[in-house]
Amino acid sequence: MGKVKLKYFSRIRETIGKTSELVEIKSTNIQDLIEELQAMGEQYSVLKGRDFAVYSAVDQSIVTDVKTSIEGATEIAFFPPMTGG
Amino acid sequence: MLNKIIVAVQKGDFDLDYELETLKLKTEKAGAVVIFVGKVRDLEDDNLRYLEIESFEDLAKNQIKEICDDAANKWDLEFILVKHRFGRLKINDNIVLVITSSKHRKNAYEASEFIMEYLKNNVPFWKKEVADKTQKWVENS
Known about the structure:
The structure holds two protein chains of two kinds. By secondary structure, chain A is an alpha+beta fold.
């Protein structure tokens, strides 16, 4: 893998303290990426989804399976349950 | 036959009269127009100062377009419009506008509800209520 743009929204943005960042990653799926990010700092543990469900979108497509491949992705977003309407 | 789908994710307000007149020009064979407006409401046990709506704009727009396409496949519609706002909103400010139009009312009613149900939990918007005593992210039930 290489550099990807990570985007954070809502409660996750507040906890991590950033709206986005460019990160060099080794992981090839969402689950591994979350583990990898956790090693960067405790604030990323919010992505484990202990307090609320964490959704992700790979290149603007929402994924439901954490084993989904992220190889070749340029943008990965993390966000809590959506509350539109 | 569906004439048009209009989708917008925007900061500014929408103009209901303008949207209705535009729709009428494009749907002369439709006899029904269902309009749903979601607006900011005050809280039961606190005084809301404002509602902050955060959005993942591009993805939200794509998700709304997809559900409008689904609705157009399920019901015989002439026109669908969905406009959803983000940013800082006050009590009574408009949040979302859904307009569906069809020859007869049943299709427009059902499609409107279908779109709104989807918007609640499947489109990337997040609401934060900032009130006198507390501030919290809204959780849909």
